[in-house]
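2024-03-11 09:14:02 INFO worker-7 job=invfold-0412 stage=load source=structure_tokens
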């Protein structure tokens, strides 16, 4: 037995520390029951060797695990490098495409105003299609840049008040909420570990979606609430709108994914993908459940502000 703590506790503490959690740990022990071995492996040990030992076999297994650790680290570094290069390429591409798209929108509008009237049906439809396509592409490029910028945000230096972020989002959408006749109920919201600007964007997107996809045969009700689950806060935005079928509740978070073909509805299909990226970058997760009267309950988790900052 080890002094002060046993091997299981030692491994548990290693895994809790960001600086040591990736170190490969091999148990070398006299405890040879299946339950002991399973417990050690479940805690994160890479191998479990029982006594009596054979030095040559132990040496070979240690060497193999060190080689695997080196390979995993190399692959992780290469993946990070490739992801950074791809994001940079997409950012440059989106940025440089904005100017020609802006020109396309401008000249299409100029043509609409300057061509003699009345236009024939084909010309009118063609101009409308050009303008509509260019406007949509401009919106998509703008949202792509927002999406790529998420990973460039520095980690927050202090928790933010979720209630403050929600208030800012409501101010941005105040006119739209009033026009829709929506009733917004805000419960007590605690401090969480995330950049306030990004949490405001999350709330703004979710509130905007709730308003946009409301039912027109009843008043829209939106409730924002929170509950604490250990070290996490689970925030929920609940509505009684059109809802999302169960089979599409993961697909809605895919980038550029739209569940309808109605082009009269605004949006580029990036909104919920952006929400997912913001929350996951902050160390949380996001998912959809049934809401009120056929609507949805969109839930996301963040580290509570009473905890130490995420590593």
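2024-03-11 09:14:09 INFO worker-7 stage=emit residues=311
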């Amino acid at each position: 037995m080890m002094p002060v703590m046993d091997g299981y506790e030692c491994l548990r503490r290693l895994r809790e520390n960001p600086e040591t959690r990736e170190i490969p740990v091999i148990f070398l022990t006299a405890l040879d029951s299946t339950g002991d071995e399973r417990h050690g492996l479940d805690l994160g040990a890479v191998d479990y060797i029982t006594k009596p030992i054979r030095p040559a076999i132990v040496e070979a297994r240690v060497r193999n695990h060190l080689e695997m650790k080196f390979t995993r680290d190399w692959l992780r570094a290469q993946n990070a490098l490739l992801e950074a290069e791809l994001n940079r390429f997409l950012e440059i591409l989106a940025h440089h495409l904005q100017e020609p798209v802006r020109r396309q929108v401008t000249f299409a509008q100029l043509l609409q105003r300057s061509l003699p009237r009345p236009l024939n049906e084909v010309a009118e439809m063609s101009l409308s299609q050009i303008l509509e396509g260019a406007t949509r592409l401009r919106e998509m490029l703008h949202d792509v840049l927002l999406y790529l910028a998420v990973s460039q945000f520095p980690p927050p230096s202090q928790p933010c008040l979720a209630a403050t972020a929600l208030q800012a989002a409501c101010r941005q959408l105040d006119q739209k909420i009033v026009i829709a006749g929506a009733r917004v109920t805000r419960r007590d919201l605690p401090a969480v570990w995330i950049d306030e600007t990004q949490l405001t964007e999350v709330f703004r997107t979710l509130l905007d979606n709730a308003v946009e996809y409301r039912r027109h045969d009843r008043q829209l009700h939106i409730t924002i609430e929170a509950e604490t689950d250990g070290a996490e806060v689970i925030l929920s935005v609940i509505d009684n709108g059109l809802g999302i079928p169960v089979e599409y509740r993961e697909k809605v978070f895919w980038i550029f994914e739209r569940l309808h073909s109605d082009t009269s509805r605004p949006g580029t299909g990036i909104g919920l993908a952006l929400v997912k990226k913001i929350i996951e970058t902050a160390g949380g997760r996001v998912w959809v459940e049934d809401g009120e009267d056929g609507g949805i309950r969109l839930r996301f988790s963040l580290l509570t502000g009473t905890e130490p900052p995420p590593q």
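2024-03-11 09:14:09 INFO worker-7 stage=report msg="Residues 292 and 309 are 34 Å apart (CA to CA)."
2024-03-11 09:14:10 INFO worker-7 job finished
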